[in-house]
Design brief:
Radius of gyration: 15 Å
Strand content: under 5%
Number of strands: 0
Largest sheet: none
Number of domains: 1
Order of helices and strands: HH
Number of helices: 2
Helix content: over 70%
Amino acid sequence: MNKQVNIWFSAVMILLVTCGAILFAFTDVMIDTLYGNKRILLIFVFAAYSIYRSMRLKFLLKRKD
């Protein structure tokens, strides 16, 4: 049961964070407060977190319980 919860939580977080990175990269959302280097840094943080969660999900799916 716990493994299923972790899988679903990871999948939802990967989807949300990836969508957030794409949203900030290709639209003008919050352009008045997030501009320049702050915006680029946020995009990279979202992308890095998405990659991190993807790797954890991959290892979780490989693990046999």
